[in-house]
Specification:
Elements (H helix, E strand, L loop, with lengths): L1 E12 L1 H4 L6 H7 L12 E7 L2 E9 L7 H7 L3 E10 L14 E3 L2 E9 L2 H10 L14 H11 L6 H18 L6 E8 L3 E8 L8 E3 L2 H7 L4 H4 L6 E4 L10 E3 L4 E6 L2 E6 L8
Antiparallel strand pairs: 1-4, 1-10, 2-3, 2-4, 5-6, 6-7, 7-8, 8-12, 9-10, 9-11, 12-13
Helix pairs in contact: 4-5, 5-6
Length: 279
């Protein structure tokens, strides 16, 4: 479907995340190891926060990430401590900039790997459930952006886990009414620039891959001669669709039906389940 990376830690240039790792996100756009398909060339996007504005910057393009010269140029100069980046393989909606992730609303970013099965049949009902005040902000045609605005409707800005649970629950309830048995497949990430949440869930219990990094201090003790680890702060947290390299013990799988929250360098994993009574 897609591949993504979410980063929270000391400021780094974007190319440290997008290009330099052995299995970088740009490499995954062309040769994904764990994705539903190896190539994710239907556009890309990157969102980042800096000290100049509470609103994140976003750069999105329909070009394949591996061949976009503007992305390579930008990545060498933009520096941030909170980054969301995504390479897209469309599940059926158009290849256009407004359909590229991450999506932005105010100070919030959101991205998704996966799909809502049967979305064309569910789309009308789901869009009608979006808060009318939020509806004008939907620019594209993807299931992912619809899910983001449903989460905003259910209070994402106050309680992201509860809002995502309510949004997913509404999708599953609507899908049952339309005879779609396993509608939700995906991993999701959202941030307000200070905290980061990442979710792994599917209706059939077979979610797309998702990993988090082992504590940098632990890895530094295990690999004292690895120069990359000495360049990372102890509070570095990276969540990825697939590992960025092959260093043994560096990557831990995020459990099925769970979510991860990163706040001030601390990291906690909690169980996740949709609220199926959402209305």
């Amino acid at each position: 479907m897609c591949r993504w990376i979410a980063y929270r830690g000391s400021p780094v240039t974007l190319d440290e995340l997008l290009y330099k790792p052995a299995n970088s996100l740009v490499m995954q756009s062309l040769h994904s190891r764990l994705g539903a398909e190896p190539t994710n060339g239907d556009g890309f996007g990157v969102g980042w926060y800096d000290e100049h504005s509470p609103t994140p910057g976003v750069f999105r393009s329909i070009e394949p990430a591996w061949s976009d010269r503007n992305l390579r140029e930008l990545a060498q100069h933009v520096r941030s401590g909170t980054v969301l980046a995504h390479v897209r393989a469309t599940s059926g909606t158009a290849v256009q900039q407004t359909n590229c992730h991450p999506f932005r609303f105010g100070s919030w970013l959101f991205m998704h790997n996966g799909l809502i099965a049967g979305f064309p049949s569910l789309k009308r009902d789901l869009l009608l459930a979006v808060d009318p005040a939020l509806f004008p902000h939907i620019e594209g045609s993807t299931d992912s952006e619809t899910l983001f605005h449903l989460a905003l409707t259910f209070g994402l800005q106050d309680d992201p886990p509860a809002a995502i649970a309510a949004a997913v629950g509404l999708v599953e309830r609507t899908a049952r009414e339309h005879g779609v048995p396993f509608p939700v497949q995906g991993t999701f990430a959202t941030t307000d620039g200070r905290r980061l949440w990442a979710f792994r869930y599917s209706s059939e219990g077979r979610s797309r891959s998702l990993f988090r990094n082992q504590d940098v201090a632990v890895l530094r003790a295990q690999y004292p001669d690895n120069p990359v680890l000495h360049d990372l702060s102890d509070d570095t947290r990276i969540v990825v669709s697939e590992p960025l390299g092959d260093l043994r013990g560096a990557w831990l799988e995020v459990p099925e039906s769970s979510y991860l929250v990163v706040d001030d360098g601390a990291e906690d994993v909690h169980p996740f389940a949709p609220v199926r009574s959402a209305a």
